[in-house]
Structures are given as C-alpha cells and as structure tokens.
Write a structure and sequence with these properties.
The structure holds 2 protein chains of 2 kinds. Chain A is α+β, with helices and mostly antiparallel strands. Chain A folds into 3 domains: 195 residues, Aldehyde oxidase/xanthine dehydrogenase, molybdopterin binding domain (Aldehyde Oxidoreductase, domain 4); 186 residues, Aldehyde Oxidoreductase, domain 4 (2-Layer Sandwich); 199 residues, Aldehyde oxidase/xanthine dehydrogenase, molybdopterin binding domain (Aldehyde Oxidoreductase, domain 4). In chain A, 31% of the residues lie in helices and 22% in strands. Chain A has 21 helices and 28 strands. In chain A, the strands form 8 sheets. Chain A has a 7-stranded mixed beta sheet, sandwiched between helices. In chain A, strand 1 and strand 2 form a beta hairpin. The longest helix of chain A is centred in the first third of the chain and has 28 residues. In chain A, 60% of the residues are buried. Chain B is an alpha+beta fold. Chain B has 2 domains: 75 residues, Beta-grasp domain (Ubiquitin-like (UB roll), Roll), CATH 3.10.20; 71 residues, Orthogonal Bundle (DNA polymerase, domain 1). Chain B is 34% helix and 14% strand. In chain B, helix 2 crosses helix 5. The longest helix of chain B is centred in the last third of the chain and has 18 residues. The chains are: A alpha+beta, B alpha+beta. The interface between A and B is large, with 63 and 59 residues.
C-alpha cells in the first residue's frame, strides 16, 4: 500500500496508521456491520426491516437512517445519508435521520483524517444497496414475477411495470426482514445517481437558523448542575493546596473539590510501552459546582489555588526556538534517504538554503470544550460533543473502572471540531466531576480555559537545502524538521514513534529529486500536542512549498513551471502517498489541478504594484488541490488576501456545495493560522487567553474564494483538511511576488514588509 | 437574591439569579433558550448577540439587572416561523457549517437590515466585523445579507406602498 518504510515502526501506531487500518478494513467491515435481521430469529408477525446498522424500515413505512460519525460542520450527516439514500433509492426528505449513540456495532465512529466519506463510501453504498435488493426480492416474491423486472422509483416504492404493480417499502418490511442479507449487492451506475454529486441542503440547516440545533453545550438533563474547573497553569502542574472558603459563600455554589490527576489510556486504543513517557493525563484541578454556569464561573474567581508547577515552568517560546535552532545545526534521526545528498550538495553548482518556523497554535472551536455527565450506581451516561466516541468509551471505562456496557455515550452536534475533539480529556473530566458531585453535571470550559489548556498543534522548525546543477536542475534536497511529536503526547517515545504523523506533506519532491534526505529532531516540551486540521501537512507544506518558490526565483523559473518540472519526473501512480494509507500520488491529477488553478486565476498576467500571486498545491487525504492566492500589500506592510482561486479534484463528489464550503472554510482556517495564530509560552504558561490576543479571521479579511471542482468518478477523497495546508505558502509566495520580501515564519511577520 | 422581571420574545419571566449574572446565562441556564451561544464571554465574538429593544447587544456582558423592564429578542423569537428574510437567505445560501456562531450573525444582520435596508459591503463589514465564524462562512454570510436585503425590499416597498 505504501513504500514509506520509516513512517511508523512496527510497534507504534498513529492517527494515520489507525486510519489506514480502518480504511483497509472497510471491505470486511461491511460484513462485520451486517447482522441477522431481527425478524429472522424473533419470528414476529410485524417486524422492522433492519438488515444492517444503518438502515431500518418499519411496516408503517418510516425509514430511519443512522449517522455513525460526528457532525461538526463538515456535513457528514448530510453526505453519509446521501450515500445511503442514493443506494436505498429513497429521497432525503423521506428518511428520518438519527445520530447514532456510541455502540460497538457501528464499528469505527472516529471522525478525523478527512476520512468519514472516504471510509464509508463502500460500506454505506452496500448497506443501502443491500437493503434495496432485499426489498426488491420481497416484492418480486409477492408478485411472483422475475426480480430483474422489478425496479425502485426513487421515492420508496418497488414497481413492476408489466403488471402495473407498485408497493411501498414499509409494506415489504416484514417479508424483506426474513430474507438473507446479500453479501455483494449490485451498486448503482453513477449515471443513475439522483442525489450523489448534486447540491443538497444540509440536514441541520433549518434548525440552525431558528436556534433549535442542539450542541453538546446545550444539553440539559433533570437535576443537572453546572461546573467549571480551575486547571494547572503549567501543563503537568498539580494542586498543592486550595482555599475555597470565599468561593463557597458565593450565590448558587454547591460543592468545590479537587479533581485528582488520572492517567488516561491511549487515544485510539493503541498499545503503549510501560513508562513510555507519554503525557496523556488529565492533570486535574479544582472543580466548582453550582446551580448555573455563571455562578460557577463567578465562584471560581473567588477561589485561591496554590500549584506545584512541575518541570514545565522553565519552558518558554524563546527556549523552544533556541532548542530547535541548536538541533537544526546538528543531525537528526534519519527518516528517509535516497542517493547521496551530501555528495550531491558538495558538487552542486548552486546551493539554496532556508529555514522556516511555525508556532504552537490552538484550535479555538467556537463551541468551547464541554461535556455533560451523569454517573450513578456504577453507570455513566454522557452527552459529548466528541469526534472520538470510541476513544471516549475506552477512556471512560478505564478511568472510572466500569465496563463498556455500563456506558451510554450520546454523540451531540458539535460547534466546530478541527481535531480538538479527538481528545477525550473534557469528557473524562466531566464524568469524574459528576461522580464526585453525586449529580449530573455539565462542565463548561470558558474561552480562557480552552486557549490555555488545549492540545496544541506543535511548533516546528525546518532547515531546507537544495543543490542545483549547472542547468539549474534540482539534484539534491534535504529537509531537517525539529519538532515535538503529536502522537508522543498519547503514546510517549520520541523519534521512532513520531515519524508517522510528522512527515506527511514531505511526499513531493521526495522521490522526484535523485538525492534526498529527510531527518527529524525531537523538541522536548511539557505542552500537550494534538491533531489540528491537516496536522503535519500544514507545517511541512509551509516549508516545502515556500522553499519551492525560493528555488524558482533563485533560478529565474516560474514557480508553476518549477513545480511541473519537479513532478514531471514521476510516472503516473509510481509515487508515494503524502499520507500513509492513501493511494499513491497520481501526478497527472496533481499537474491538472495546478495548471487549472493557474488558468482560472490568470497566472502570469500582470497585476498593479503592491499586488502579487502565489501558488501552492498538494495531494493529501485522498484529494488533489491547488490554491492561487492574490494579495495586496499596503505601504505599512499590512496584507490583505483579495482572492483565492482553488481547484480541487477529490474524486467522486458527494455534495458539490459542501466541497465548496470545505474549501472556503479551509481557506479561512489556514489564513487565520498564517496571519495571526501564535501561542506564546513564558514560564511554562500560555500567554494567550481569548480572541483579543488570539485573533481569528473576520469577515472584512475574508478573501473571495473561487472554487473549481474537477469532475471525476474516482474513489472519493477527503475534503475536511486538504484545503488548509497550501494556504500559508500560497499567501507567503504571493507576498514575495508583490514585494520581493520572503517571510519564513508563521504567523507571517508582516511588519517586516513596511516600507520605511 | 431578588426576583428580576424580564421580557423575552414577548413573554414575561421572573428570574432569581445574582444581579451581576449576564443575560446570556439567564437565557441559557434559567430559561432554557439555548439558541443564544457562549463563545468568549467578553464581547469579542458575537455568538451571544440578542436584541434589546431592537438593538443588537452582546448578552455575555449585559448584566441581567440592566435588562429589567426591557424587551429581549433571541434567535428563537426572531420570527414566528423561521421566515425572517435573513433566515430564508441563510438557508438559500447554505451559509452554516457547524452553525454555532450563526444565531449571533443572524441577530446582528436582522438589526442591520432594520436600520439599513440595503447595506453595502462596507456596511456589512462594519456590522459583522466584530463577529467570528471559525468555519469561515463569511462569503456566504455576505451573499445572504445582500439577498435578504433584496427580499426585504420586495416584500416591503421602500415608500411604504401607495399611501
């Protein structure tokens, strides 16, 4: 599947490894998901027809379809149901759409890696088609006509044209339920699609505009109390002592108590070595439980906590930068080597070198972390805005010491995920608070809690070198990354473990240059790191695609032409995947999105002074995507991105409007990180706290995003993440085109552009 | 803790909370009107925007004591049946992604349109520029506001009809 030998050691697992496993397992998963129809064993006179975990049709004609991934704005409730409804051949409006609670029968419910549609495409098509096939079989048997002559009409009826007979799915439910589930039902020809590939409105839209969409934070259960938790200011810190006397006198306060630190199991059920040095703990703190969120917040202000800060208190952004700079002067762990890059550099006609740097950044989901939990009598029920129901279940069971069967996890609508909610800390914390409070409790994180206690996208520093021959061809390429791991937070270990999720996005020109070297050094930090929309592709692509631009300008080549020259070396499907588990890169598709983006953006045409265009493109998460950014740089150095032309080839499109929405959103997300996001550490403490010092892109700074989708019936690619990583380099490259100044550090240090 | 009387979406309520409680938490925790969202707590993101006597106001920094005797409108009361021109346009343009910030966006938009029936792009920037949508739905918000303005103008002629 992949030739990337150093990506992950045999004993280490990673988010990507996990996704790869689940993707590879999708074929057998289908069979796993099918269970015998209930009526077959229960011999009820009137039975619902439930041939698999996703579809249920009752004799009264009600069709219920289950969404088994988490909706956080990316549209899975709509796209997954579109796929099911397409093959079941019913209209979206004719089905009741249900969010599935956590249940092992659904298999993998994790929502990450832009994988929901990709990994569900086959299972959901087969689930819908299998059910439809059984209904048709039941109708044919009823009418005593050949099955091949029966059709479905797209509205939930089976028809037999010759005898002019027609029957609704509900009337067939009992009979269909007694039939064997087909293992390989026939799937629709894409030309017959009624839903897939067509603009379809979001199923939650109508509720959202009237304020009736219920997110995790909107949960209210009988007898529920409200809590906030004061957490250690330095990660790894512990409560030394606390004085709650004043806080307990505040209005509405019920209880104030310490939440003890607990060790959590790994995030996705992977094994980890004992004493691995992982940092996956709930650090604990002091919980304030009251009769309203505000009363809890107000009382917390009157609480006095003394902390043991622990070793993290000596860290700062300055120390992290100095550590990375030192490591980049030496050698790192070798992750990949082709040819003899050092020898090639020593004989190169020209050497180009540059260093790039990205900071720690927070997720800042608009709905802050929160969870409602009710623990009593050895059972725990939670209402969780989570992307990771499976991981939450495993961790709740291990931390609470109860079996999985004693858990009920309601997966709520989520007000933005971006990877933050793959973490299960806030869910475990809520359960512990409920247990101690002896009541159902909703724990809400304030924005300050969120910004200061995130699992941050790690900082990274990159040293790049390219050797060119006399004809300005790139003959060697070296890339040294200094960064802390992401997986290491959860699994421990150092370099051997972190390769897996730190080097995606280094795929090209890896393999197109005869001499190549990729190495990595490990930055130690007590700061927790986590998956953040597009993960390592963001940092590696910033370095890689900016460096490509630098090489182009240093050799007098057009940046698009240099890219095409580099990728032309590879034959179709001969390359590596940028993301372990994905299909190998198809350079023809990559070339096409780059060329089309150039064409649609007017690449090569002149712009007025102070304006410029930059290009960047990638293959990732199964999709191909290129951005051309157009920027204006004012005399004071301020940058406005005027326009972003994006071409995407994500294979078979399920809902084109949602593909466009994901591109628009990815551009805004990538731009926020490129222009503003900067988590700064001093004495181990995060210095940012809210949107005043951790700003977000706002409407006046949003570029005009023009999305062009390449028609395709290839397997669907992911769309949540691939629009994010190329934004930073496209904008940085456009700034260079406008000003001749190269910005190599994120957030882009635009003050350096001011004209004196 | 005295009872404070407030009117929300045309209904009177008497609530017993400490007088410094922000309106946001009274709406959400006491009255169960959860359409108004908590985003930042310090008036920086706009997710908590409601109307107080028709003015778009950040409920997270508005003490309940300051609201006594005034009319509060939340997203749940913006229109009786979800057909405010902004709500219709929001669906038509498929604005929402996660949707969490959109109640605030809609409330500010409704207040903007009430004062300025055909806002320019820069009027929109001024009114919505203090809101945050982390999903990046801004270009659809802009389109939806223009569309709502057009719909509103068609529904209510500017000269008030023939009279």
């Amino acid at each position: 599947m992949t030739t990337k030998s150093n990506a992950a050691s045999a004993t280490s697992f990673s988010r990507r490894h996990f996704l790869k496993t689940s993707a590879a397992a999708s074929a057998s998963l289908v069979i796993g998901f099918y269970f015998p129809a209930r009526a077959a064993s229960e011999s009820e006179a009137v039975a619902n027809f439930a041939p698999n975990a996703f579809v249920e049709i009752s004799p009264n004609g009600e069709i219920r379809l289950w969404v088994t991934r988490s909706e956080m704005g990316q549209g899975v409730r709509t796209s997954m149901i579109m796929i099911l409804a397409e093959e079941l051949d019913v209209p979206m409006s004719g089905a009741k759409i249900e969010q599935a609670n956590f249940d092992p029968k659904y298999g993998d419910m994790t929502t990450g890696g832009s994988a929901s549609v990709r990994s569900s495409w086959d299972p959901l098509r087969k689930a819908g088609a299998g059910a439809r096939d059984m209904l048709v079989t039941a109708a044919a048997a009823t009418w005593k006509v050949p099955k091949e002559e029966c059709t479905t009409d797209g509205t939930g009826f089976v028809e037999h044209e010759k005898t002019k007979q027609r029957v609704g799915y509900g009337d067939l439910a009992s009979k269909a339920a007694a039939l064997p589930v087909p293992k390989d039902p026939p799937l629709k020809d894409p030309k017959d699609y009624r839903l897939v590939g067509k603009k379809t409105n979001r199923v939650d839209g109508a509720h959202i505009v009237i304020g009736e969409a219920h997110y995790g934070i909107d949960t209210k259960v009988p007898g529920m109390l409200y809590a906030v938790v004061e957490r250690p200011p330095v990660p790894g810190g512990r409560v030394k002592s606390f004085d709650a006397s004043k806080a307990l006198e505040m209005t509405g306060v019920h209880k104030i108590f310490e939440v003890q630190p607990v060790e959590m199991s790994s995030l996705f059920g992977e094994d980890r070595a004992p004493n691995s040095g992982h940092q996956h703990y709930l650090w604990g703190g002091v919980a304030v439980v009251a009769d309203s969120t505000w009363h809890a917040i107000a009382a917390r202000r009157a609480l006095k906590v003394e902390w043991n800060d622990g070793p993290g208190a000596t860290e700062s952004t300055a120390s992290h930068r100095a550590d990375c700079a030192t490591m980049l002067k030496g050698t790192g762990k070798e992750l990949k080597k082709i040819g003899d890059p050092e020898a090639a550099l020593s004989t190169a006609a020209k050497i180009i070198e540059a260093e790039y740097e990205l900071p720690f950044v927070a997720h800042a989901t608009m709905e802050p972390p929160n969870c409602t939990a009710s623990f009593s009598n050895g059972k725990c029920e939670v209402w969780a805005p989570t992307q990771n129901a499976n991981g939450l279940a495993a961790n709740l069971a291990s931390v609470l010491g109860i079996p999985a069967s004693a858990l009920t996890i309601h997966v709520t609508l989520i007000g933005g995920g971006f990877g933050r909610r793959l973490n299960i800390d806030y869910g475990v914390e809520a359960a512990l608070v409920s247990r101690a409070a002896e009541a159902p409790v909703k724990v809400t994180w304030t924005r300050e809690d969120d910004i200061r206690h995130d699992y941050y996208r790690p900082m990274s520093c990159h040293k790049m070198r390219a050797g060119l021959d006399a004809q300005n061809r790139v003959t060697s390429w070296t890339h040294h990354i200094a960064a802390p791991g992401t997986d290491t937070t959860y699994l421990g270990g150092e370099i051997p473990d972190i390769g897996g999720t730190e080097i995606a996005g280094t795929g090209l020109p890896n393999g197109t240059v005869p001499n190549y070297h990729l190495q990595q050094s490990f930055l130690r930090t007590s700061l927790l790191r986590g998956y953040w929309r597009s993960v390592d592709m963001y940092w590696n692509h910033f370095a890689l695609q900016t460096f490509m631009d630098e090489i182009a300008h240093a050799t007098g080549k057009d940046p698009l032409a240099l890219r095409l020259e580099l990728i032309a070396v590879k034959e179709k499907a001969s390359g590596e995947s940028d993301n372990e588990g994905d299909a190998p890169v198809d350079v023809a598709r990559l070339k096409h999105v780059l060329e089309l983006a150039a064409e649609k953006s007017g690449w090569g045409t002149s712009l007025p002074a102070g304006r410029g265009r930059g290009i960047a493109g990638l293959y990732g998460f199964g999709s191909y995507l290129a951005h051309v950014a157009e920027v204006t740089v004012a005399k004071d150095g301020s940058v406005h991105v005027d326009r972003m032309v994006t071409v995407v080839d994500c294979g078979q499109v399920i809902n084109p409007d949602m593909v466009a929405a994901q591109v628009e959103g990815g551009v805004a997300f990538g731009l926020t990180a490129a222009l503003y996001s900067d988590i700064v550490i001093d004495k181990g403490r995060v210095q940012q706290s809210n949107f005043n010092n951790y700003p977000m892109l706002r409407i006046q700074d949003m570029p005009r995003v023009e999305v062009h989708i390449v028609p395709s019936h290839e397997a669907p690619g992911g769309m949540g993440e691939p629009s994010v990583p190329s934004v930073g380099p496209a904008v940085g490259n456009a700034i260079f085109a406008a000003t001749g100044k190269r910005l190599r550090r994120l957030p882009l240090q635009t003050q350096e552009l001011a004209q004196s | 803790m005295d009872a404070i009387s407030i009117t929300v979406n045309g209904r009177q309520h008497s609530v017993e909370v400490s007088p410094d409680t922000p309106l946001l938490w009274v709406l959400r925790d006491t009255l169960g009107l959860t359409g108004t969202k908590f985003g930042c707590g310090i008036a920086l993101c706009g997710a908590c925007t409601v109307h107080i006597n028709g003015e778009a106001t950040r409920s997270c920094v508005t003490r309940i004591s300051a609201v006594a005797g005034r009319n509060v409108t939340t997203i749940e009361g913006l229109s009786p049946d979800g057909t405010h021109p902004a709500q219709v346009a929001w669906l038509d343009e498929q604005v929402a992604q996660c949707g969490y910030c959109q109640a605030g966006m809609l409330m500010t938009t409704a207040a903007l349109l009430a004062k300025n029936p055909s806002p320019s792009d820069s009027d929109i920037d001024d009114a919505l520029g203090t809101h945050i949508c982390r999903c990046g739905t801004y270009q659809r918000i802009r389109r939806a506001i223009h569309q709502a303005a057009e719909k509103q103008t068609v529904a209510k002629p500017a000269n008030g009809g023939a009279r």
